[in-house]
Amino acid sequence: MKKYDAVVIGAGHNGLTNAAFLAKAGLDVVVLEKNDYVGGATVSRELHQGWQYSNCSYVCSLFRPEIYQALDLGRHGLEVVPLQGSATFKQDGDYFGSYHQPAVRRREIARHSKRDADASIRFDADLMKWCRLIRGFLLRTPPDPASFKPRDVMEFAYLLKRFYTLSESQIYEFIRFFTMSIAEYVEEYFESDVILAHFSGGSIIGTGLGVYSPGTAYVLLHHAMGDIDGNVGSWGFARGGMGSLTKAIASSFQSHGGELRTNSEVEQIIVKGRKATGVVLASGEEIDAQVVISNLDAKRTFLGVMDPNDLPADLLHRAENFKIRGSSGKLNIALDGMPEFPALPEGSSLTLGHMHFTDTLERLERAYDDWKDDRWSADPYVDTVIPSQYDPTVAPAGKHMMSVFVQYCPFEVEGGWTDAKRDAFGATVIDQIAEHSPNFKQLILHVEVRTPLEIEAEVGLTEGNIFQGELTLDQLMFNRPFPGYAQYRGPVKNMYMCSSSTHPGGGVMGAPGTNAAREILRDLGRRDSTPRDFGDD
Amino acid sequence: MVSIIQSPLVQHDAKQVLLPSPFHPRIEQHCLVKNWMSWNGYQTARVYDTLASEYFAIRSSCSVMDLTPMEKYRISGPDALSFLNRLVVRDVSALKPNRVTYVVWCNDEGKVLDDGTIFHLHQGEYRLCSQHHQLDWLLISSLGMDVSIVEETHEVAALAVQGPTAYSVLSAAGFDGLDQLKPFGILHTQLDGFEVMVSRTGYTGDLGYELWTNPSNALALWDALFGVKQRGLYDLRCIGLDALEMVRIEAGFIMPGDDFNTAETTVRAGHDRSPFEIGLGWVVNFDKPHFTGKQALLREKDRPIERRLVKLAVEGNKPPVDSFLYDGKKGRRIGTIKTQIWSPILKANLAMADVEYRNGKLPVQIWAEIYYQKELEWQVTWAQCRISDVPFWTHPRRSATPPQNC
After folding, report:
1. ipTM exceeding cut-off 0.90 for this assembly
2. Do A204 and A52 form a contact (C-beta atoms < 8 A)?
3. Which pTM was predicted?
4. B151 shares contact with chain A (CB less than 8 Å)
5. Residue in A110, A128, A188 closest to B7 by CB
6. pLDDT tens, residue by residue, A34-48
7. Which of A175, A266, B113, B218 is the most buried (most CB within 10 A)?
8. Per-residue pLDDT for B357 more than 80?
């Protein structure tokens, strides 16, 4: 029977990235995917004829350019087009537009508060300080702070050295930043309600926390630390939808001789003598490999595809308690034309960017209150984009594709989810958008409504948590997914983790898959095919 | 947090990326080469016609520049003076009405946020002009004080009229009483029935004035000035920011953001600068009971500064653009050029440079490594540099009252 060098469970973007680097280093690699398509939560799916929905992740910023370059994704068909600006619509009929032109953006902030226009300079510079620090850690394996192995000690020293590139006052601010709520953080800069709300929204995306919950300030950073061609914080559309990204990685993987198998759900990781030796598929087929890499989230890996007898009790306990709460929903909408937003000036560029309809911190917090009570938000926070304005491949000519990310939507709704409740959730979101767009409802040709339940069922993300585990300090860096297991190695020999449940966490970043590949190649004594961080200075 | 939402919710045209100043209808006619840039969000000319003609207008006849984009704040109220005196490192407590002074302000770490000028407009009423946006910091600094701070950049139209014949031009345009106006003095006067404030201030190191008026009078003011030229009395030229850059370096004036990184925008620790590090120790007054940054700056006595911004004359004629500086020809790297110009009046390369400052001493020798190209072929050369403790160029007419032979 054939024995692979490596088998990767799950063809999400991190699984593919991991596999591509292993194959690039000369390993014989197979990626197993339960669905009949690859991509995991980074897909383009034609669920309505003529429309390509990026039906999970929908914009791209965090994906590391080092990986893009190393896997030659441009030649494998990837193109990320930067999107321009963002807007928050107000309930009084006005709006705030974060224009892509700095001079215009400044004037627009000043329209709401002259002070805030100046404070945004301080806000941007401060955020850049933290981005600059954190970005240096993305393509590195976190050190084990309790270990005295030379590599851990050196890596920890590197981390501290980076940390001490901050000035004294920056160190104080940085520590505060990690523990603060986003609301308290932005209130140290801004006074205008709509600007406070606009800059806070990114902090609750995918997170079972509210704008006043401590720890949410960091989530803002997690969304702001990406960049497109050096424009830090900007987001882009993958041409053809997010599936283009995973298609490009898969193509790069295959160009290095990798093998992809869809419709191949893994039932169990085989462990013999405390060593992983392969996997068993749901079909009963066994696949042998020298190393087994799980791209499933930590819960699904340890509680789903591993035998508890192969695992330490403590690890199972950690997995059981891993915070991976579903809090987000998604609507993918096929539109017969471009919706009108009468609050915006004629021909405004703001529809080209992210659109939000929550104009106060209080409304953001109330949206969270509903989630805590096992209800979807009656007045949700949405992140709406219409990529078909840039990308002719995602909708027929003259028609449009709208992607609506929704916060909050619970995994377990009061009384359990039903089709009727799912539709009611969808209607809540559509009603909110329609308040600002009178012709929106008439234009709707098809809607795909996804609650965390559907996301879990189709993609496999436990509870539908988009980050494969929440981005709170107790689950970041050397705590991700669990203390002692943050270096991508599993609890048994030859078993690894490469999913977003590992450092540096969720988002379409590719870093966990890359970092895991580096560790695997190191253990196997193979050439390191992974890229080094470009560095900042 | 002080909540003063100073903003009428006035819609603006997002497709008009840069704002026109109140003088724009005339500026657009004068600007022949349409070489525009943004200055604080205003459409501003880099060059109007040719750089040489604009430079020599400043140095040998009379130049006009639109100053409106400069940030302006009106500061008033019972605590206005104590607010300002705590804000800036200089002692401004004795600033009399109708006088102007140059100031620098720091954060609590003693790092420079910006520089500018304080105008004592009327008893207890001040205008602070700054290079960069400062409202956020001014409001933070006003906590606990009874002071009103209002941004008035767009509410005041301003022109700089600079050059040897500036006095004659303004007199011919109808301004009276300028003969007794001393440097850094203010004159409130009238021209053709509207109010104009004249200050004998500038950024050129030459004789010069700045005119301040309501935007509704902007075009009338402009026309009164250029009427002097139309009548054939004196030449008068609009100058862009490129010519200004030449004369301000000749005059030894620094530019926050270009010559050093301002504290508020500094991301990397150590990339901001204290007043001593940028050669502005002379404006720091430790005798004041308190000012923002005082404690930190006092600590510099124990932890001496390690870098200094200096005025550097670079030998030869190859422009030391972005050059690295060394302690000897092919020696150890000790600094970089920040900004540089060719001075037509001195026939020399002049620069602002950031260099090492060890044990309270500037480098003995400084050499610049200069890359330059002729017809796209690149060359490298070395040029020795000389630090200048005084402005590269000054002229007695700048400070003579009344202005003479102009």
Report:
1. yes
2. no
3. 0.94
4. yes
5. A110
6. 999 999 999 999 999
7. B113
8. yes
